[in-house]
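Example 3.2
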Amino acid sequence: MTSEFAQHFAEEWVASWNSHDLDRVLNHYTDDFSIETPMALKIQPESQGILKGKAAIRIYWTMGLQLIPDLEFKIIDVLTGIDSLSIYYLNTATGRKSVENMFFNEQGKVTKVFVMYS
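Structure, written as tokens:
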């Protein structure tokens, strides 16, 4: 994982979220990726905060965009790991800071995500 890849990925990821185009957002992920997030626990309690696969996550993210129709992210920082990166960002619609910890496969697609909120 290079800092150049991480920065470019983060900028494209935020732009895709800010466009509210879920196809564009989901293009960053493998078909079977998983996400663990306290927001899923809140929106879909039966998930226990863990969702797997694009179909299930599309439903969750659609619900999220309906709940926050003016969603917009701004990057605070991008950190790199071995095969992972963390995007620290502000959701300007809610004022909440978040960190998305993303793990990648060899094709540069996200396979697993852990999300934390302020």
